[in-house]
Design brief:
single chain, alpha+beta, Ubiquitin-like (UB roll), DNA polymerase, domain 1, Aldehyde Oxidoreductase, domain 4, 6 domains, seven-stranded mixed sheet, 24 helices, 32 strands, globular, binds FE2/S2 (inorganic) cluster, AldOxase/xan_DH_MoCoBD1, oxidoreductase activity, Ald_Oxase/xanthine_DH-like
Length: 856
């Protein structure tokens, strides 16, 4: 076929099954066009064909014949939309950005031709509705497109809100899925079809198909490796083996030729059935139980097994008193007593860049390009597992993680094993179905809550008994978080896991927090309602956290809160306003180092961390710029050969790298002693993360992680509109108050908080991981069936930062990635109650559930 591609002539002979995206990314090498869902739902692969936006992942390549194709690279780098995205911080991880930019360029150009002024939010949202941003950067995307259409970026250079924004809006930012190495093979994982079975794997004869790289070797190297430890699979979708071939299509074909013989074993998927005494045991002995995967972030608590139920952490503070008070309150039907069982569905992380790895095993060591949020962990894990002469982990840009990319995943293991065997680089990238099946998810939960509150005396007693449903994994920690909330009244908390033959869960942003808040924050709201108390005032009375108390006071004065309607209303459309609060632990990596070197007149900052969309490069750059305001500063992250840096998880990045970068900048200034940077070529200093004042780091250390003194706080005030005829809920306005101390990068911090709200809305209303209760097959393994919040679900958001109270922390502030999302779903539930009088107990609040609940 012949076409015009980004302004120049191209010829290519596509295969019959090639999509436009395949050809553009592989044959034309234009990797700015991203493939994420592979089903035309997310819009990341949008290109322009004869000026019209098209999703290239579904478009047969042959249809490009005779057309004029423009990708994000062809837009250039100077379009007003790109400038606006750069300055308005209309991105986080950036994986969705090329698709948004390409679509928005068409909208902008047509608007400027036919219309005048600024398009409304709704007009822009309508134009971009076919695009998904899992980071939830919609608010800034809408603003950027509006400003570009209004002509604000016609002739001025943007001031980038984050260091890497220009690379992300032009498609030049390289993600792992974009890495291509000479001689690279493509790997595919062979997975179990059954939920529980003993398996035998037979690889086909490979005569004449050896993939060995060294012709001098005598043993043919065939493109198969086994991944399964032992011979038992415990869930449908579990990796068994991996194959590699010259092209992805050949690898898929080869995978089909691997014979897996199954001897089925009794299975159980549904947690209610799994907890029965006569249910088949998923982990029949202590050795198997010990190897159960964990969904906990860091080390989980030890537990005791009984059948498929594993008792995890239990804690009580005057537990018997708590139980006695709750029993008595129930008996006498006390007004401040509330008991209910809440459930939550599994929530899939759904990072738009799938899990992907490119392994290059050579005699002198391993280089592993991988989409990870835990570069330093992976380096240690790879060294331990394979013991190569050296290990380099590379992750220049990472298209989202949210907790799902913390470990050595099946993609990395398969790529390394294949590369080690074959002596050639191997890429393994998950399909969207694999991503939604077997890369983890927030466990589903069932929480039995009992609470007794008084209007002035505080929380008199609480008990929370939670079962986590994370498939074959354990480590759910929900009730445990009750130790951190609402003072020191008598309390009893217990977490347990009920395992089943379903894929394992993994940590997800604020692990345990959203389901905890879903139960407890609705409990507080219900007690306030029963006592006739103001829910915010009641929380302020009960809550000992002074930072959050400051937020209650501000929230109480908001017109959004003051003017909330009475419960319940009448009529078809009802407005409601709800509040919920959250806290989160403060963590930091005290071993973090930031190195500064003067190179060619510029200051180059290096640390072995990665940017998953949180803007860590900009935190470092800003910290150095405070000391060297006029210097040119480059930031290099995403490579493990730099000095130790933090994992992007547990809200620890900013609190780790910010102070270390300031320390480095101070040391460099001391070394220069007034000399200009341009005259200090080669000077290198190493900054360290100073310890907290008052020696306040709690002596808990897991893989460099320290828990610090103090709790981050958040309060969300959420307004909804409920259509009581159709059962639809729309979140219209959210106020998010966040108390984490000093903010290092205001634009990125606000963006994070807005994204946390969007994800919380998804958790509240749409996101539901569905597993077949008989086979354990994940039925919501595509983005049609797993519904993410889109641009039209974005409410008006106001973010308030309370910046006091963290003076003991170097830099005066801590991370906010978890706390900003924890209480959102609960605030939606409370708003729905305010609107309708219906107390939703089950997440997500689907229309059928709402209608059924309201009819009771
Ligand atoms: Fe949109 Fe990450 S910035 S998916």
């Amino acid at each position: 076929m012949r076409l015009t591609f980004n302004g120049g002539p191209r010829e290519h002979d596509p295969g019959p099954d090639d999509t436009a995206a395949d050809v553009i990314r592989t044959a034309f090498g234009a990797t700015g066009t991203k493939v994420s869902c592979g089903a035309g739902v997310c819009g990341a692969c949008t290109i322009l064909v004869d000026g019209e936006p098209k999703v290239s992942c579904l478009l047969p390549a042959a249809h490009l014949d005779g057309t004029e194709v423009t990708t994000v690279e062809g837009v250039g780098g100077d379009h007003p939309v790109q400038r606006a995205f750069v300055e308005c911080d209309a991105l986080q991880c950036g994986f969705c950005t090329p698709g948004f930019v390409t679509e928005a360029v068409v909208f902008h150009d047509r608007w400027r031709k036919d219309r005048e002024g600024t398009p409304s939010r709704e007009e822009v949202a309508d134009a971009l509705t076919g695009h998904l941003c899992r980071c939830g950067a919609y608010e800034n995307i809408l603003t950027a497109v509006q400003k570009a259409c209004a002509g604000e970026f016609d002739d001025r250079e943007p001031v980038p809100a984050r260091v890497e924004a220009p690379a992300k809006v032009t498609g030049t930012a390289e993600y792992t899925v974009d890495v291509t190495l000479p001689g690279m093979l493509h790997g595919v994982i062979v997975r179990s079809r059954l939920p529980h079975a003993r398996v035998t794997v037979t690889f086909p004869e490979m005569s004449g198909q050896s993939l060995r790289s060294d012709p001098a070797e005598e043993t043919p190297h065939e493109g198969f490796v086994r991944l399964l430890d032992g011979d038992v699979v415990r869930y449908a979708g579990q990796p068994i083996a991996a194959v590699a071939a010259e092209t992805p299509a050949q690898a898929r074909e080869l995978a089909e030729s691997v014979t897996v013989s199954y001897e089925p074993l009794p299975s159980v998927v549904d947690p209610e059935e799994a907890r029965r005494d006569d249910a088949p045991a998923i982990f029949p002995d202590a050795a198997a139980q010990k190897n159960a995967p964990s969904s906990a972030e860091g080390a989980g608590f030890p537990g005791r097994w009984r059948g498929n139920v594993r008792s995890g952490y239990a804690s009580a503070w005057r537990g018997r008193t708590a139980r006695r008070r709750l029993d008595a309150a129930e008996e006498r039907n006390a007004p401040g007593y509330f008991a209910a069982t809440f459930t939550t569905a599994g929530q899939s992380h759904t990072a738009l860049e799938p899990h992907a790895s490119v392994a290059d095993w050579r005699a002198d060591g391993l280089t592993l390009y991988t989409s990870t949020q835990a570069l330093p962990h992976l380096k240690a894990a790879a060294a331990k597992r394979w013991n190569p002469p050296k290990v380099d982990i590379v992750a220049h840009h990472v298209g989202g993680g949210f907790g799902s990319k913390l470990g050595l995943g099946a993609d990395a293991v398969a790529a390394v094993e294949l590369s080690r065997k074959l002596g050639r680089p191997v890429r393994v990238a998950m399909s969207r179905a694999e991503e939604l099946t077997d890369t983890g998810y927030r466990p589903g939960t069932r929480s039995e809550l009992r609470m007794l509150g008084t209007p002035t005396g505080g929380l008199a007693a609480i008990s929370l008994d939670v079962s986590g449903h994370g498939g074959v994994s354990t480590g759910s920690m929900v009730a445990t978080l009750g130790l951190l909330m609402y003072g020191r009244g008598p309390r009893h908390f217990r977490d347990r896991d009920v395992v089943g033959n379903a894929p394992p869960a993994s940590p997800f942003r604020g692990p345990g927090g959203p389901p905890f808040a879903w139960a407890v924050e609705q409990g507080v709201d219900e007690i306030a309602h029963r006592l006739g108390a103001d829910p915010l005032r009641l929380r302020r009375t009960w809550d000992g956290n002074r930072r959050r108390r400051a937020l209650y006071e501000i929230a109480a004065e908001l017109p959004l809160w003051r003017d909330r309607p009475a419960t319940p209303q009448t009529g078809r459309y009802r407005r409601g306003v709800g509040a919920a609060a959250a806290n989160w632990i403060y963590t930091a990596d005290l071993d973090t180092k930031v190195e500064l070197t003067v190179r060619e007149g510029r200051i180059v900052a290096r640390t072995a961390t990665q940017d998953i969309g949180t803007g860590v490069r900009t935190v470092i750059r800003n910290a150095v710029r405070e000391v060297f305001p006029d210097a040119a500063i480059d930031v290099e992250v995403g490579h493990s050969h730099a000095p130790h840096g933090p994992v992007a998880g547990g809200s620890r990045s900013t609190a780790s790298v910010g102070p270390a970068a300031r320390d480095a900048a101070g040391k460099l200034a001391a070394r220069l002693d007034g000399k200009p940077v341009g005259e200090a070529e080669g000077v290198t200093v190493l900054g360290e993360r100073p310890k907290d004042r008052r020696g306040s780091a709690v002596p808990v250390s897991m893989d460099h992680l320290r828990i610090g003194r103090g709790l981050a706080g958040a309060v969300h005030i959420t307004e909804v509109e409920v259509d009581t005829l159709l059962g639809h809920t729309r979140v219209t306005r959210v106020w998010g108050g966040v108390a984490v101390g000093a903010i290092y990068n205001r634009a990125a911090a606000r963006n994070q908080c807005e994204g946390g709200i969007v994800q919380g809305i998804g958790y509240a209303l749409y996101e539901e991981r569905v597993t077949d209760p008989r086979t354990g097959v994940v039925l919501s393994a595509n983005l049609e069936d797993y519904r993410l919040p889109g641009v039209k679900d974005t409410p008006e958001m106001t973010i308030h930062f309370h910046e006091d109270g963290w003076d003991h922390v170097p830099g005066g502030g801590i991370g906010l990635g978890e706390v900003c999302t924890v209480s959102v779903a609960a605030s939606v539930g409370n708003a729905i109650f305010n609107a309708t009088g219906f107390r939703a107990l089950d997440l997500p609040i689907r229309p059928d559930r709402l209608l059924e609940g309201m009819s009771r």
